[in-house]
Amino acid sequence: MIKLDEKIITRIKQLAESYGGNRLILFGSALHNPSEARDIDLACDGIPGWKLYEFAAKLEDELQTPVDVIPLSPPNKFTMYIEKKGRTIL
After folding, report:
1. What pTM did the predictor assign?
2. Residue 1 lies in a domain
3. Range list of β-strands (E), the chain
């Protein structure tokens, strides 16, 4: 079970910005069915290259929860779906 209250969302946004993130979308089970979620899925713009994976690792350390982070750019069918169905948090 994943609990994403506003305090956690705020911390996720702060960390994303500290790594250069300028857009962040929450999607997947943590958004749609948090009681059964096993991880947090995020799509991000603005964090280059390996920094994206450093960001994900830092989130996992702080939240003590598995985190999957994917880049929003370049756009593809999956990222367009995320943009439609996800929750923009940054």
Report:
1. 0.93
2. no
3. 23-27, 40-45, 67-71, 87-88
